[in-house]
Amino acid sequence: MDSLNPAPADPLLGLMLAARADERPGKTDLGVGIYKTEAGDTPVLRAVKEAERRLLETETTKAYEGPHGNPLFCEAIGELTLGGLGDRHTAFTTPGGCGALFIGMQAAKLASPDARLFLSDPSWPNHEGIAAALGIETVFYPYVGDRTGAPDMDLVLKGLEGARAGDILLLQGACHNPTGTDFSAEQWVRLAEEVEKRGLLPFVDTAYQGFARGLEEDGANVKAFLERIPEAILTYSCSKNFGLYRERTGALIIQAPGAKAKDAVATQTAALVRASYSMPPSHGAAIVATILNDAELRRSWEEELGQMRGRLNGLREGFASALVRATNDDSLSRIAEEKGMFSQLPIEAEDTLVLQREKGIYMPGSGRVNIAGLKEDRLGELAADLASYLVR
Ligand code: PLP
Ligand code: TYF
Questions:
Q1: Is any ligand 1 atom within 6 A of the Cβ of residue 171?
Q2: Which numeric CATH code is attached to 64-145+165-177+197-293?
Q3: Which CATH number fits domain 11-44+297-387: 2.170.130.30, 3.30.300.20, 3.30.530.20, 3.90.1150.10?
Q4: Does residue 133's CB lie within 6 angstroms of at least one atom of ligand 2?
Q5: Mean predicted lDDT score pLDDT of the chain
Q6: pLDDT for residue 146
Q7: Considering 207, 289, 320, 322, which one is annotated as catalytic?
Q8: Is 2 considered catalytic here?
Q9: 188 catalytic per annotation
Q10: DSSP string, 28-44
Q11: What start-end ranges are recorded for coiled-coil regions in this protein (predicted)?
Q12: Distance between CA atoms of 43 and 28, rounded to whole angstroms?
């Protein structure tokens, strides 16, 4: 092992540890994407606590579940995303969204060994990291054009001009990480045409369903997109919308072009699962299945999810107006329209380090901020601290 050099820290997880270690009382952690209350806590959701209590009382075995994990969980996530699994779908419980991404990309590579992964620029750093670990080449396509922040379809399509049949096109479900800006319904239709025309394999990563407008609203474009195309891979994370982060709860759903292809892809993917973690952890998936199959728990979960969404959207409005006031730059009002946990500030990477050192304000070098890390009563102060560093 003498040949190894230390790996660079994950830009987001490294920042999480640095912010935790900072003892300044007024520090502001806008780094890693974890939902927080005004008090800065990330509590266990009420429905999760109740589901856990029920599971503790009723669980009768810890015997293995198998590579697909919990079938009730898989069906429930199939219902949330596709309106139900059909005979062309195979679904797996996975260790978080990351586990789904890892196995999903491996399956895509198995089907098409020379496939490259097309990623939005910018994208979530771990997309590139997982592809690199699997020896999949990545190609970036431009995503947002100007500072209005909306995805620019002409630029996206230009970026896909070099894509070959079998290449993988990574798209994110609602609440794009890191920009907070998503494709419109019309743009998803255009993407489906492009996927068909070029024979691409769409790979839709969904990690924030329910944080933009509502559960159904946030899933509608992806659902319609999947109905339009023959094959696709869908990855799902329950880390944020169920607050299950450390339980490592996610799903991988593969849509095959037909029932025969489905059998092949299901068994090949199960073999990939067996060769890595063999079977997924059960606890988080059992919690989600319990919540989604019980009317009262589901109502309670949807209510709490709505509260998280409401707090994020409220903070966005306050933050956007505080920034516009502090900078006189109206273009920053886009932050109020963006969705989910993140927006990107126009800031140089070196200035994020200055803010960290001098003001205890933590964000990655990309300028991405976790909206949930904002404090409602200190938005003006924060905007004033940021103002002189924002690029106009
Ligand atoms: N995909 C995106 C876009 C994310 O932001 C995240 C992070 O939460 C994930 C996938 C995977 O998250 P996890 O592995 O914690 O479920
Ligand atoms: O983007 C984020 O901050 C979240 C959390 O390796 C995260 O998605 C970050 C890095 C990572 C896993 C999760």
A1: no
A2: 3.40.640.10
A3: 3.90.1150.10
A4: no
A5: 96
A6: 67
A7: 207
A8: no
A9: no
A10: EE--S-----TTS--PP
A11: none
A12: 18
